[in-house]
């Protein structure tokens, strides 16, 4: 560990409006606390934003008033954040982009991301492998965003040709209550449903509750996503209603922040793209995805 | 009477029209299971909207109810989880949790009300402020994630949301009782009368020996208590609370009140209009999910159009009102 | 007789302005005390202090001889001191019965006893000889009806001391009689009464004791019979008043306004009238006869009105205020609080509101201030400053401001509903003279008034309305009280209605 | 004058206190670069809030402004993108885009206003409806994603947000001009007088031959136009629009108006109070970024507390008002 000069790292992420982002926020804060202790010469600025405009403002503030040396950003949306992040880069700062790519290649020094297409594809593959042609599924989508589109498109591509019938796709907004309502209505509308892709474990929680209420637990299984600890637990326990899950680790932000820190405290220059693929969590491997301390 | 009926017909007609449309679009709409779902879901907003009717009628407003509900759900869950090791998994613990929820609601209502009546700050600002405060607190308590109820307690507590008398579940029963009591309070008690008088002209009320500040405060406390009650029914449903619980409930509750024929500027409260407004709002959602529409992206637009149309029916009356 | 409520050495300031200077005054049980004075003399202020609504700056209020520590009106009311305010104090969204019992609702257990309250309200209104439905909403009532509700509300309080601030200003003679009967009854029951009024005949008829106020000081006191009406007027104004109504030296010109078959649903049926240049046309009738509606319809304020209307031969569309305004029609409302003035806005903004287009695209503040000065002078508006809110003016001065506001639009045709409501005798004379002068300048004037002497003294021609129709017309020397009342009550008409049965023409 | 000054001091004192706190927390706060950022950001909400001041003063409300801005940004971007192949990447295209934004804003305002004044529906309901409609439409137009401006145009258009006269960028200049014009309109024109008169008693205004419906309509159109103008400045900043653009701007704009001393029930408008309110709101965000506070989860709570405190300072006046 070098006794380096003082550096400031700015971290801009979306605020904790749903489970996954909550987990991400938790990991970000945890990592910052940990690194702050390990490397006293590093200081961190964490800002959370509820929309793109606020995130751009946060980045402007970090530049104008906190004099940051590096920026770790999970863009709220790709397009609007591209130019502001580019100007941070142009000012000679070290830039790490997390999860959602910018709309222009090659701005960031370091790219750490989950793979949204893989997230949809892995889930879709499981459906294609485990359902007969003609079996029926329903889908709950997230908040209408580009990444939701990517996931759903990949999912649809993966089940293409399997003969699985998608009965309906509505937005559950990555929210338990909304997903509960939508699933109740699906159950009222469709007498026959064989499986549900809830695309997110928060939504899966609501979906399971609605299915339990209708007493149709034996009829269908549910695939969520992102590996929430309660869900992983149930997979470990071999719950037939929750055969598998697809990872989309909120801890990717930790990796990103750590790498930004290492850029200053170690001599090795950090660069490149780190794509954390989406894995299928099965009862067999579930234990390694179980983090009981995380709030997510 | 003759006049009032006519005025109330507006939203009622809209509700009936919605029910007919729903039934035509999908026969499953009228199945008891679906009706039970829709009514039970309406109960949270419904309870809150009944309280909101009093607050709006006296000339106030409360934007904090959604985050207040999230916050109360959070502390209720935390309280029950903390109690489990001591009192064990039993109804005693749940009842203490319920008491925490009620007490929390009443206290939060009192806090809003006291700032508004004692410190004399505009209700819009006070409750905008407390909205941010409660929302932040619950996010902070849950560390940005979700607060989940102990699973043993959950199993025990679940029937409070899901059971009842046949398909008429407890939330539906509670909502019905509160709505009837609310309507009765508004029409037939001194409190209701004073609420209307204050909203109509607070100086007149003050000159008539009405305890204006007291009644105002009481309306916020009542609303807070009903938020607490709504939380008691909400927690057993999913057993969790997070920063995204109850987002925009305030807007939905206020919209229900106004669709029901209560004026935003106060003076006349129609609790049963509010009930109709709540049902209209939750039926729209239900029907949009049951029907196959062009694009789910457009749900919000259809919702908007229906809300406006539901109120257009009230317009005629007001046009003639306008001397 | 014992003194129940008393002011001793009371002064009152609003900001730096002292409006009452050392007032001593006592109300005795079983006695009617009249307080008279010019507009802005301080009558309402005294009554508010007596009723606990305002605190004296100096001096004391004594109840039964000991200092009364009322800190609010309701507190005073609990001790039996009840005030009928000059401005209405009714909640517009509540019903008549609700308002009468507001704050003192009758209950059975927890439940409001609607039936009992309705019955009691009905009885009170019956005693007052009105036909107001206890279930009607205040916002749907006419101004005089609201005043009657206000009186009923006060009567329901079983007061020891009843203070009435111009209770009769908004009433027609029919309700006034009912009011007098109540006053006589209460006096006989030993209630201490105080009222103020600008109708001096009423003062002479009712008062056992008179206090005359001028500029915030008591200038003279008298007991029943000690003062004639002329003496009262002189004491109030401080100089002799002669020739109450100016001569009707009208030279009637050509037709200015012609109205044919004007109907307002539910209020006016097929009314036709013509108004000539230089003419003052009176419209008389009982409360609810539809006079206000007719005038409002002519001014374009009543949507749904039908018929034809021409001004100087040009057709004017109905139900269009702005078209009527462009044709030179201006209407001065009887409901000055709800429809006349913006009570929270400064006097100047009120004055120029209807005529703003004459003050340029960028409002010329200096010109506005000049207009305010002119109006203050011409209409004798007594105000501490042109920046004070209109609601802080005394009632009569509000009326003068309203008149000034209407005249600022330079109308050809002026419809004045209750021109002198709440105006003191001195100013009344000025207003009558002003109306005559307008007529002489070639304007056409329509005056609606519930004070028959006013209609008789002022109008060249009087239309009498009854139940939404024009029941007849009296002209020239035939304009007498009896002639008007006969038409107004439908005496001689075939059907017998309530009014006819209940009372004979005065 | 003496009265008005005193009343306005409340929010002004709060603003000054915030500036002092900001400067103490971090000296960079007062650097031109930071002030330029904060002021430029305030411009969007600021322009909208100036329009909102007129709407609220006349007794109305507009909840749709945020989604209206998103929708207009969407159609503006689509229009410009569609034009690029025809007219090319040049200022002509951008000016046409700006005209689309203005026309869109005025049309949307006219639509709201017409529903409110002609169809006589409560403003709360109308604009709640159109809020849903515009939000849905932009989500639908962008297919749930983001609408992005052609990158050539973006480069050309960017200086409209980022350049200006020194650190005083165009948004700041526009906001300043609009604020001054707005204050002038409210104080010194017939329109402003009429707006205040209608808000304080619409019946009196009608009896004074004020064109009540016309003025009301005009206030919504004015607001719509200002939303269009805000969009013209917003598009070059982010070059995109999506379903999450402008979320909660309505609440922020209304809050700024009320913090500035305009009453929610209408009657008195203080445009320059609104400007102070807008600055208070955006400085709070900025200051929270200046220093490390307990937890970003609690930002909302701090914001809430400051908003309430800023208004507490106005309280005294109202307390004495209330005889
Ligand atoms: N709230 C107030 N603020 C400032 N001045 C006031 C206020 N209330 C009354 N005044 C002033 O006090 C004086 C007395 O008013 P008051 O209402 O007592 O007159 P009044 O004798 O009742 O007149 P009127 O016959 O016109 O009703 C007037 O000059 C009036 O402008
Ligand atoms: N806003 C209103 N809504 C419904 N009815 C009304 C309204 N205003 C008045 N009325 C009713 O219309 C009728 C005519 O009332 P109006 O006030 O015109 O009588 P008026 O002859 O002008 O008497 P005055 O001026 O003394 O009240 C009455 O029955 C009255 O109660
Ligand atoms: Mg008076
Ligand atoms: Mg009348």
UniProtKB/TrEMBL annotation, chains B, D:
Q: Entry's InterPro entries? A: ABC_transp_permease (IPR001851)
Primary localisation category: membrane
- Tell me where in or outside the cell this protein is found: Cell membrane
Pfam families in the record, alphabetically? BPD_transp_2 (PF02653)
Q: Where are the transmembrane segments?
A: 12-32, 38-56, 63-83, 89-111, 123-141, 161-181, 217-235, 247-264, 271-288, 294-313
- What is the official name of this protein in its record? ABC transporter permease
Membrane topology field: Multi-pass membrane protein
Keyword annotations from UniProtKB, A to Z? Cell membrane, Membrane, Transmembrane, Transmembrane helix
Domain of life assignment = Bacteria
- Does Transmembrane count among this protein's keywords? yes
UniProtKB/TrEMBL annotation, chain C:
User: In what residue span(s) does the ABC transporter domain sit?
Assistant: 5-240, 250-492
A molecular function (GO) held by this record is: ATP binding
UniProt keywords (A-Z) are: ATP-binding, Nucleotide-binding, Repeat, Sugar transport, Transport
* Pfam families per UniProt: ABC_tran
Q: Does the keyword Nucleotide-binding apply?
A: yes
**Superkingdom of this protein's organism:** Bacteria
* Name the record gives this protein: Sugar ABC transporter ATP-binding protein
| Species of provenance | Paracoccus albicereus
């Amino acid at each position: 560990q070098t006794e380096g000069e003082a550096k400031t790292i700015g971290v801009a992420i979306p605020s904790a409006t749903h489970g996954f982002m909550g987990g991400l926020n938790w990991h970000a804060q945890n990592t910052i606390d940990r690194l702050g202790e390990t490397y006293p010469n590093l200081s961190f600025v964490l800002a959370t934003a509820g929309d793109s405009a606020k995130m751009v403002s946060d980045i402007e503030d970090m530049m104008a008033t906190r004099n940051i040396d590096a920026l770790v950003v999970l863009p709220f949306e790709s397009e609007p954040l591209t130019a502001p992040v580019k100007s941070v880069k142009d000012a000679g700062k070290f830039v790490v982009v997390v999860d959602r790519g910018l709309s222009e290649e090659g701005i960031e020094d370091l790219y750490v991301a989950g793979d949204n297409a893989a997230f949809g594809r892995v889930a879709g593959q499981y459906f294609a492998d485990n359902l007969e042609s003609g079996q029926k599924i329903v889908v709950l989508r997230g908040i209408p965003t580009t990444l939701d589109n990517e996931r759903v498109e990949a999912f649809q591509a993966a089940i293409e040709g399997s003969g699985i019938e998608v009965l309906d796709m509505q937005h559950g907004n990555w929210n338990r209550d909304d997903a509960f309502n939508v699933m109740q209505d699906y159950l009222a509308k469709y007498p026959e449903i064989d499986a549900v892709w809830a695309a997110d474990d928060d939504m899966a929680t609501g979906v399971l509750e609605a299915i339990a209420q209708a007493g149709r637990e034996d009829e269908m299984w549910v695939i969520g996503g992102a590996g929430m600890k309660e869900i992983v637990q149930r997979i470990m326990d071999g719950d037939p209603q929750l055969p598998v899950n697809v990872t989309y680790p909120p801890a990717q932000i930790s990796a990103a922040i750590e790498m930004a820190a290492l850029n200053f405290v170690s001599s090795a220059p950090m660069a490149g793209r780190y794509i954390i693929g989406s894995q299928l969590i099965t009862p067999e491997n579930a234990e390694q995805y179980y983090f009981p301390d995380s709030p997510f | 009477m003759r006049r009032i009926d006519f005025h109330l017909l507006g939203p009622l007609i809209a509700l009936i029209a919605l029910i007919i449309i729903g039934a035509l679009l999908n026969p499953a709409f009228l199945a008891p299971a679906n009706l039970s779902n829709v009514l039970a879901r309406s109960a949270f907003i419904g309870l809150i909207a009944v309280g909101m009717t009093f607050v709006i009628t006296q000339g106030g407003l409360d934007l904090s109810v959604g985050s207040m509900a999230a916050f109360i759900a959070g502390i209720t869950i935390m309280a029950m989880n903390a109690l489990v090791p001591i009192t064990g998994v039993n109804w005693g613990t749940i009842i203490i949790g319920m008491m925490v929820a009620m007490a929390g609601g009443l206290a939060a209502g009192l806090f809003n009300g006291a700032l508004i009546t004692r410190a004399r700050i505009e209700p819009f600002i006070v409750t905008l402020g407390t909205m941010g405060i409660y929302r932040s607190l619950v996010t902070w308590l849950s560390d940005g994630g979700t607060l989940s109820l102990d699973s043993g307690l959950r199993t025990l507590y679940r029937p409070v949301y899901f059971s009842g008398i046949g398909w008429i579940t407890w939330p539906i029963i509670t909502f019905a009782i509160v709505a009837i009591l609310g309507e009765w309070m508004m029409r037939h008690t001194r409190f209701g009368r004073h609420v209307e008088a204050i909203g109509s002209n607070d100086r007149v009320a003050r000159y008539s020996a009405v305890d204006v500040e007291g009644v105002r405060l009481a309306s916020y406390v009542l609303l807070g208590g009903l938020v607490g009650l709504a939380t008691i029914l909400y927690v057993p449903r999913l057993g969790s609370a997070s920063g995204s619980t109850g987002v925009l409930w305030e807007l939905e509750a206020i919209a229900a009140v106004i669709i029901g024929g209560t004026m935003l500027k106060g003076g006349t409260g129609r609790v049963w209009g509010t009930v109709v407004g709540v049902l209209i709002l939750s039926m729209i959602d239900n029907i949009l999910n049951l029907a196959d529409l062009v694009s789910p992206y457009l749900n919000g637009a259809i919702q908007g159009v229906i809300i406006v149309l539901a109120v257009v029916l009230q317009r005629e009356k007001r046009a003639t009102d306008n001397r | 007789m014992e003194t129940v409520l008393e002011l001793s050495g009371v002064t009152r300031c609003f900001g730096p302005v002292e409006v009452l200077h050392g007032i001593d005054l006592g109300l005795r049980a079983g006695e009617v005390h009249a307080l008279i004075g010019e507009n802005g003399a301080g009558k309402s202020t005294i009554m508010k202090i007596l009723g606990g609504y305002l605190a004296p700056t100096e001096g004391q209020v004594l109840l039964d001889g000991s200092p009364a520590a009322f800190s609010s009106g309701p507190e005073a009311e609990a001790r039996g001191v009840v005030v009928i305010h000059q401005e209405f104090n009714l909640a517009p969204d509540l019903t008549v019965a609700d308002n009468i019992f507001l704050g003192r609702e009758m209950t059975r257990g927890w439940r409001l006893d609607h039936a009992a309250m309705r019955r009691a309200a009905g009885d009170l209104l019956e005693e007052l000889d009105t036909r107001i439905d206890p279930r009607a909403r205040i916002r749907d009532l006419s101004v005089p009806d609201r005043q009657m509700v206000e009186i009923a509300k006060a009567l329901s309080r079983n007061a020891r001391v009843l203070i009435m601030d111009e209770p009769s200003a908004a009433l027609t003679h029919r309700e006034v009689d009912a009011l007098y009967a109540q006053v006589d009854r209460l006096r006989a029951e030993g209630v201490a009464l105080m009222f103020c009024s600008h109708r001096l005949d009423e003062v002479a008829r009712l008062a056992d004791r008179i206090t005359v106020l001028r500029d915030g000081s008591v200038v003279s006191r008298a007991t029943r019979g000690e003062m004639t009406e002329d003496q009262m007027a002189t004491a109030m104004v401080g100089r002799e008043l002669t020739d109450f109504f100016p001569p009707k030296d009208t030279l009637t010109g050509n037709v200015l306004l012609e109205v044919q078959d004007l109907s307002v649903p539910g209020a006016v049926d097929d009314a036709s009238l013509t108004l000539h240049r230089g003419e003052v046309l009176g419209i008389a009738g009982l409360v609810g006869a539809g006079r206000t509606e007719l005038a409002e319809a002519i001014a374009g304020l009543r949507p749904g009105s039908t018929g034809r209307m021409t001004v100087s031969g040009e057709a004017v569309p109905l139900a269009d205020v702005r078209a009527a305004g462009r044709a030179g029609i201006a209407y001065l409302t009887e409901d000055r609080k709800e429809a006349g003035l913006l009570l929270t806005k400064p006097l100047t903004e009120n004055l120029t509101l209807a005529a703003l287009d004459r003050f340029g695209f960028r409002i010329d503040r200096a010109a506005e201030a000049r207009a305010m000065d002119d109006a203050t002078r011409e209409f004798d508006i007594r105000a501490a400053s042109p920046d004070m809110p209109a609601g802080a003016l005394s009632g009569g001065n509000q009326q003068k401001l309203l008149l000034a506001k209407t005249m600022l639009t330079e109308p050809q045709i002026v419809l004045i509903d209750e021109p002198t409501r709440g105006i003191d005798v001195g100013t009344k004379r000025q207003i009558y003279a002003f109306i005559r002068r307008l007529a002489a300048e070639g304007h056409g004037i329509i005056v609606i008034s519930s004070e028959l002497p006013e209609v008789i003294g002022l109008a060249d021609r009087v239309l009498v309305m009854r139940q939404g129709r024009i029941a007849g017309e009296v002209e020239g020397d035939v304009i007498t009280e009896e002639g008007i009342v006969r038409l107004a009550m439908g005496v001689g008409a075939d059907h017998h209605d309530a009014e006819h049965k209940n009372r004979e023409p005065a």
